[in-house]
Amino acid sequence: MPAIAPENLRARIREQVESVTSWDDFLAIRIELKPETLLDNATRHRLEALPGSVHLKGDTVPLEYEIQNGEGVARLRLRQGQAKRLRPNEVPRLDRPLRFAVQRGRHPPIQADTLTALQALVRNEGSMREEEHLGRAHPRKKEREHRRDRGRRRNRTGDRGRRRR
Fold first, then answer.
1. How far apart are CA 96 and CA 118, in angstroms?
2. What pLDDT, on the 0 to 100 scale, is given for residue 110?
3. Residues 19-38 pLDDT 10s
């Protein structure tokens, strides 16, 4: 399906915005990618019939579809706890390679090609967060230290008790 390869879609969008010369023009332009012009009906219906989610251990987990190196793949988007508990024999079988991702709040997702690799990355991320957390002083402790240091600056020899600005 070369018509929907990411580089071809970007080229189609680029063609549509070539005439844009201002922000107002950009806001006014309507960018269109019509599926019926990109794929034949049979292919489009086959792709539309693909599942959007799977059930794992009682949870509904979203499936996203991508093209990697010209090959269609599915990405299972798990929560961190699901990724830690999931076992290889519980991974659904699909008609295409399955990839994995764990979303971490506002951070970019952790992505891997295998469940084992994803679980290793999630474990590593968790230990990195613990180290980061242990390295930080408690906010109230920092505030007390700041006040104590500020008092020391004011009472140095030559300050005569005057407050610095």
1. 18
2. 93
3. 999 999 999 999 999 888 88
